[in-house]
């Protein structure tokens, strides 16, 4: 796949001939002409093409010049990918053997391929989501941290995927349950006011509200050592606070 980058010497509304352009750089892929596709990343998997895209990020270019568009793609999927990348940089294609070719011309097949690729992209995202969900469910069934918001009293150490106790926050959690047991008739608002008066704060360093107190009380089973994730409940691997 041989690709030459050109820029115009002068701007004009008329069609510019190749003699009116200046060669900037030549890119070449050794071996088979055309291009391969990285199906997971949905991008053209050729070293020369990727080097060209890197060049476009730092230089002003008007045209990618090639002998024939078949040097750039051999399938409609690759064609759409090439068009997508070049349009990002406002670059058109000049083909020596196809002088009238332009990526800006409307082609009904492009709409079809673009639609199919959008569906493929959605399918891949859904497939990844399902795989992640299965992995998280399996971890939850074993009592391990499966992701999501970390409850007050715990933290996730950097580089690890397990819950460990945050000593300062754990004292706050314990104090909530102590107050609830000591003052059974107190409302959630009264519990929050007492915590705030004693200097306790949320993870974000803010004052407690009745909503946050209820959330702590509702997690009594979790703070006692059980792990709950979706419909799964198991003996947690995390250390109990209560």
TrEMBL record:
InterPro entries, per the entry: DNA_bind_recomb_sf, DNA_bind_recombinase_dom, Resolv_N, Resolvase-like_N_sf, SSR_resolvase
Domain of life: Bacteria
Species of provenance: Melghiribacillus thermohalophilus
Residue span, Recombinase domain: 151-242
Pfam families hit by this protein: Recombinase, Resolvase
PANTHER family recorded: DNA RECOMBINASE-RELATED, DNA-INVERTASE FROM LAMBDOID PROPHAGE
GO molecular function: DNA binding; DNA strand exchange activity
Classification via SUPFAM superfamilies: Resolvase-like
SMART domains: Resolvase (SM00857)
Name of protein: Recombinase
């Amino acid at each position: 796949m041989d690709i030459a980058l050109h820029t115009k010497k002068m701007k004009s509304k008329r069609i510019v001939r190749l003699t009116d352009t200046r060669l900037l750089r030549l890119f070449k892929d050794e071996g088979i002409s055309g291009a391969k596709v990285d199906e997971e990343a949905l991008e053209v998997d050729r070293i020369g093409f990727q080097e060209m895209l890197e060049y476009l990020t730092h230089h002003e270019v008007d045209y990618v010049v090639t002998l024939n568009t078949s040097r750039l793609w051999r399938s409609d999927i690759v064609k759409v990918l090439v068009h997508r990348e070049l349009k990002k940089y406002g670059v058109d294609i000049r083909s020596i053997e196809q002088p009238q070719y332009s990526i800006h011309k409307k082609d009904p097949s492009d709409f079809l391929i673009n639609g199919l690729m959008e569906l493929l992209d959605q399918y891949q995202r859904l497939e990844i989501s399902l795989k992640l969900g299965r992995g998280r469910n399996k971890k939850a069934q074993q009592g391990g941290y499966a992701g999501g918001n970390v409850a007050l009293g715990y933290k996730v150490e950097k580089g690890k995927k397990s819950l460990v106790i945050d000593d300062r926050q754990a004292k706050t959690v314990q104090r909530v349950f102590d107050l609830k047991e000591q003052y059974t008739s107190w409302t959630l608002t009264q519990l929050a006011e007492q915590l705030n008066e004693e200097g306790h704060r949320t993870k974000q360093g803010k004052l407690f509200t009745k909503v946050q107190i209820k959330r702590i009380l509702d997690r009594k089973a979790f703070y006692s050592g059980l792990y709950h994730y979706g419909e799964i409940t198991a003996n947690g691997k995390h250390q109990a606070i209560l």
